[in-house]
Amino acid sequence: MSSKPAFKVADISLADWGRKEIMLAENEMPGLMSLRSKYKDSKPLKGARIAGCLHMTVQTAVLIETLVVLGAEVQWSSCNIFSTQDHAAAAIAKTGVPVYAWKGETDEEYIWCIEQTLVFKDGQPLNLILDDGGDLTNLVHEKYPQFLSNIKGISEETTTGVHNLYKMMKDGKLKVPAINVNDSVTKSKFDNLYGCRESLIDGIKRATDVMLAGKVCVVAGYGDVGKGCAQSLRAFGGRVIVTEIDPINALQASMEGYEVTTMDEASKEGQIFVTTTGCKDIITGKHFLNMRNDSIICNIGHFDCEIEVTWLDKNAVEKINIKPQVDRYKLSNGRHIILLAEGRLVNLGCAMGHPSFVMSNSFTNQTLAQIELWTKPGHYSVGVHMLPKKLDEEVAALHLDHLGVKLTKLNADQAAYLGIPAEGPYKPDHYRY
Amino acid sequence: MKRKRTFSTDMDNTDSSMLVERKKSPNGLELVSAFRAGRHDPTDLVELAREIQLADNTVRATACGKLQVIAEQVRFLQEQAKRVLQEAREDQSRHHAHCNFKRVPGHVYHLYRRPTGETYWSMLSPTEWGPSAPEQDYLGAFRLEHDMSWTPWERMEQRAHELAQLNGLLASDAHGASLNKALMMDTSGP
After folding, report:
1. Is the N or the C terminus of chain B less surrounded, counting Cβ atoms within 10 Å?
2. Is residue B184 assigned to a domain?
């Protein structure tokens, strides 16, 4: 690792294009930009050597440059072998940040890329981890435990990674404090709800150009993602049916005016199907056979196991690829099914994922988590922590101006009446929003 | 009479087509004695026959020489054709090696073979892989050219030199006036 390249990207000549898109994204990421102006002089991350492993996209580029403005040294890899936007990676590499990411890595190259981010110039190892999915965290714990004593903490972006952290903690394997960024209100409640509310429709439209008005749309699951999907489908004039296993969520859906029934029933009626559950085997063979001709099926939940694609591949009479990420299957009953993104996440496969603004919420949480871990050594024990409510509120506050929100101030009298500080935090930790 | 017969036999033996055909009445005037008017030294004919023989040989030798040049050229063209086909096959098989990323002309990529027999393209050279390299055979570094052909590492410098010279030509002389001169210079290149 002594003679590693300064960076490794697909095509450095894409840097100018990447820079233009980063400039556009900056305007839509007010949380990160206000952290820059707030901390550019005090540089709270001075001395921090952050190894980051998170989709190397235009939005992430804004995060990386924010961390640099705050004084950190940063090295980056992507947390998915296909998710890197090569122009964003090139623009970051050009600024001198060591980035090792390109769209279309092999699994071994993926690990290689992560390994390049562990040791900084002059042979100094990392002292902070910013992770998405847990691969960097696991790699350091399993293959490079000598670096652990030096690491002040981990901030983890997503559900999968947080599960991994809790599991490591339970097995006694976690050796550094970790902050669960995923479950900040301004992360999951925004990213999942508002992000998917826009990107689901974006994906369906780009893939099929189908008219949603008047269609019967079936949304499996009424969690944050399901709520967003149901709302936008209805907003386009679709008639939405929800399926749920949890009586609370089912009641919520019903009281929002959605019909709630089972997939066995809904599969006979629907024309557009969206799975959002995070569970498996939601739409299976018998459901496909119930469906009307040319029903559109997609998943925006978690993995690709919500829709039984293997059944389609095995039992369909014919499979025609309409265009990348759009397949039309002919079933034994003569009817057709249109499957988007091969059952994987439709907003990533057929659209551009989350917009910058909602990623600004997530990444502002990430940045605040990094500041917490770096500036308060000893404050967080080895284990999995949440960001304090106050910081969650700060993340939201940083995004208000951009939307022209005028916030009402609590006066001292009112604060005393409610028994909360006038400056917040305004809600108890268990409040559900 | 006997002598005459002998002579005519001689003539036949030499080659009846060697001399221009005789006529007994050229332009309608009958010759008094065709024999007399046509008598000549018999050794002349032997000399003539020898000359013809020599000319035949010379022509044949010259033709053979010329044909040889053509044959050599044909052999050379055959060799060239074979090489072009071979290179096309190699380029094709290189394009068919597995690859996850979008290849950009002008960039150098590395070809490996996995223990499973799968060949694939990597962004990383063996040196860059370092100790993290998986088990695999290195098949070489190749640069993707703009014509979608692959130049092996050992020929990269040569090809770059050739291309630079040709590009220089294109830039300096749109009319091709100095093309011959430059191409001749090129033959003395590396």
Report:
1. N
2. no
To the nearest whole Å, the CA of A111 is away from the closest chain B CA by 8
| Count of domains forming chain B | 2
Extract the tokens encoding B179. Answer: 């093309």
- Segments forming the whole domain that contains residue B130: 99-172
Which domains are present in chain A? 12-183+354-397 (3.40.50.1480), 194-344 (3.40.50.720)
Which residue ranges in chain A fall short of pLDDT 50? 1-2
Q: How far is CA A368 from the centre of its chain?
A: 17
CA angle A316, A320, A324 (to 5 degrees): 125
State the nearest Cα–Cα gap between B128 and chain A, in angstroms.
Answer: 6
CB contact under 8 A, B99 and A111: no
**Domain membership flag for residue B62:** yes
Chain A interface disruption, residue of B98, B99, B101, B143, most A CBs within 10 A: B101
Using the predicted structure, report yes or no on whether residue B2 has a pLDDT greater than 80. Answer: no
CB < 8 Å to A10, chain B: 101-102, 104, 123
Flag whether B58 is in a domain. Answer: yes
Same domain as B56, residue B115: no
Q: Based on the domain organization, do B104 and B131 belong to the same domain?
A: yes
The minimum CA-CA distance between B122 and chain A, rounded to whole Å, is 8
For B45-104, what is each residue's pLDDT tens digit? 888 888 889 999 999 999 999 999 999 999 999 999 999 999 999 999 999 999 999 999
Out of B104, B127, B130, name the one closest to residue A10 (CB).
B104
Active-site annotation of A, residues: 55, 78, 83, 132, 157, 182, 187, 191-192, 196, 302, 354, 362, 366
Q: Which of A415, A419, A373, A334 is nearest to A176 (CA)?
A: A373
B121 within some domain: yes
Predicted local confidence at residue B12, as pLDDT: 43
A429 is in an annotated binding site: no
pLDDT band at B7 (very low <50, low <70, confident <90, very high): very low
Q: Do the Cβ atoms of A4 and B102 come within 8 Å? A: no
Residue showing tokens 């559109």: A296
Are B87 and B105 members of one domain? no
Q: State the pairing for strand pair A99-100/A73-77.
A: parallel
Residue with tokens 């001689």: B10
Cα dist. B24→A367, A425, B9, B34 in Å?
123, 140, 19, 6
Q: What is the pLDDT of residues A239-297, one digit of tens each?
A: 999 999 999 999 999 999 999 999 999 999 999 999 999 899 999 999 999 999 999 99
Per-residue confidence (pLDDT) for residue B114, from 0 to 100:
95
Name the pLDDT band for B107 (thresholds 50, 70, 90).
very high
- Binary contact (B101, A11; C-beta < 8 A): no
Q: What pTM was estimated for this model as a whole?
A: 0.82
- For position B178, what pLDDT does the model report? 58
- Alpha-carbon torsion angle A379, A385, A386, A391, nearest 10: 20
Q: What value does the mean pLDDT of chain A take?
A: 96
B105 and B168 housed in the same domain: yes
Q: Indicate whether B104 and B164 sit together in one domain.
A: yes
Residue B4 has pLDDT above 80, yes or no: no
- Angstrom CA distances, B78 to B69, B82, B86, stand at 14, 6, 12
| CB nearest to B132's CB, from A82, A105, A115 | A115
Which residues in chain B are contacts of A102 at CB distance < 8 A? 101, 123
Residue A105, marked binder: no
Q: Are the beta carbons of A8 and B123 separated by less than 8 Å? A: yes
